[in-house]
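Example record used in the benchmark description.
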Amino acid sequence: MQTVSTYKDLAMAVLADSNKIEITGDIRKGTVKIVTSGTVSWVIAIGAIGIAYAAIMMIPATGGTSSTLSGIAAPAAVASIGLPATTAAISIAVSAGSLSAIKKLRNYKVETQSDGKTILVKK
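Model output (structure tokens):
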């Protein structure tokens, strides 16, 4: 089992195909919402998150003008899956350098939640 407490560590654990991940700290709430959100909500959110992610990745090249695009796209994701999950998804994608980590995260399920820890296992 791999223990993580940052979005970067979570992204790396998911990309490494860890069978079981223990999540601690503040990243738990948003991560659980990503994993447990329904298919329709997730389809809406992933499109908006993709646009926000692309805009964030373009910030150095555009001198910050692309941040307006992420401000437009992110509200659709927030409406679908909530602010903590949207923040988590964008942070995971940026940490991983692509959307693949958050897509793979959807292949996990919450096994247990207790004592400030959440255990995710592969479906």
